[in-house]
Every structure is written in structure tokens, then in C-alpha cells.
């Protein structure tokens, strides 16, 4: 059974505005703390299913992630990790933006499911939620405040 990490937030901007920004799979370095650089490897469109982004993080760590699907009607995309320094396998993550209809704000959730050795399970759940998803969502909150 896969392990799951999850985080969510409410942003002070309309869902369509937030989605226009987030749907660019290649712009993670523009908003994600600790990502120094990010590029689409073949230079193609950053919203093309199958494109691969290469991210350089702390200590020159390399993450490579492939865009597996994008759904503009649902304001979401999902991706898989191809290469990572983390001891996880079969990771599939998703970012989704939904309107908060009574306030005009956005509800953003970021989560992932992955396999991991039992000894690393709790640490990896906490790492993804606390060191990746939550800081990323906080940075989005500042961008859209």
C-alpha cells in the first residue's frame, strides 16, 4: 500500500489566476523555496504531457520529474519523480487548485503517493509534507497575497 503525504492552503486570489501560474510545469524555481534552478530538459513547452523538468535543490541535489497529465477543467496536474536523492520509489504527485466559491479565494492542495522502505516511511512522509509541500504552499501564499 502506498504512503501518502498531503498539504493544503487557501490563497487570496481567484482559482483561475492561481492555475494560470501553476500550470507552468517548468516554473517551480520561480516560487518553490530551496529550488535553485529548474528547466524543461528538451526546451519544449512546459505544459506538454511527457516533458521532464530538471530541478537543482539544496547541496546541488538533482530531481527529475515527468509531467504525466494536466487537466485544465479540474485545474490540476500530476507528475512522477524519475530521479531523486530521497529513498522513495514510484512517486506520483498532484497539485490541484479549486475555487472557494463564497470568498473568491483558491484552495490549493499538493500531495503525493509513493513506496518506501518501512524504516523510512515516517521520515519521508514528514519530509515531503514539511520540507517540500508546506514551504511551497507558503511561498504561493506570499506570491498571491
**Rough outline:** globular
CATH class descriptor name: Alpha Beta
CATH architecture: 2-Layer Sandwich
As residue ranges, the low-confidence spans are none
Structural class: alpha+beta
Helix and strand succession?
EHHEEEEEEH
Mean pLDDT reading: 96
The helix count comes to 3
Distance between the terminal alpha carbons, to the nearest Å?
38 Å
Q: Which superfamily, in CATH terms, is the homologous superfamily?
A: START domain
Helical content stands at: 10-25%
> And the CATH topology?
Alpha-D-Glucose-1,6-Bisphosphate, Chain A, domain 4
Largest sheet: 7 strands, antiparallel
InterPro entries: Polyketide_cyclase/dehydratase, START-like_dom_sf
Pfam family, one: Polyketide_cyc2
Protein name: SRPBCC family protein
Organism: Actinomadura miaoliensis
Task: Reconstruct the topology from this structure.
Blueprint: E1 3-11, H1 15-22, H2 28-31, E2 37-40, E3 52-56, E4 62-71, E5 76-83, E6 88-100, E7 105-116, H3 121-143
Antiparallel strand pairs: 1-7, 2-3, 3-4, 4-5, 5-6, 6-7
Characterize the structure shown.
Helix content is 24%, strand content 42%. It is α+β, with helices and mostly antiparallel strands and 145 residues long. The chain has one domain: START domain (Alpha-D-Glucose-1,6-Bisphosphate, Chain A, domain 4, 2-Layer Sandwich), CATH 3.30.530.20. It has a seven-stranded antiparallel beta sheet. It is globular.
Provide tags for this entry:
145 residues; globular; seven-stranded antiparallel sheet; Alpha-D-Glucose-1,6-Bisphosphate, Chain A, domain 4; SRPBCC family protein; Polyketide_cyclase/dehydratase; START-like_dom_sf; single chain; alpha+beta
